[in-house]
Design a protein that fits this description.
This protein is mainly β. It has helices at about 10-15, 100-105, and strands at about 5-10, 25-35, 35-45, 50-60, 80-85.
Length: about 110
């Protein structure tokens, strides 16, 4: 039967055993910048049941402090992850228009 779980709680020790927050990161997205740190959503795979999850990772912006990577959570024992899956999407970007002469190969 497929796993239908959409939220899971990990401990920092469990995540570090999985190679996080560094080696096992499949993707990083969703920058949320604060004064002293930046939060990123990182995606990783749990090999125990081959599921893919996202958590938040904090990064210091300067040399003045040493925040743990799990700073945005209340406790190192309660890192809540949410299940993610890849999905193709179409994104429209606005780019500079080219002149008619450059389009004609001039």
């Amino acid at each position: 039967m497929p796993n239908t779980e959409i939220r899971r709680t990990f401990t920092v020790d469990q995540l570090e055993t999985l190679g996080l927050p560094g080696d096992n990161v499949l993707a990083r997205f969703g920058e949320d910048e604060h004064r002293w740190y930046i939060n990123w959503q990182i995606v990783f795979r749990d090999p125990a049941d081959d599921t893919t999850w996202a958590i938040t990772k904090s990064e210091d912006k300067g040399d003045n402090s040493e925040l743990p990577w799990w700073y945005c959570y209340d406790s190192a024992d309660k890192i809540e992850a949410y299940r993610v899956e890849p999905r193709e999407v179409t994104i429209t970007e606005w780019v500079a228009a080219e002149s008619a002469t450059s389009e004609a190969g001039a």
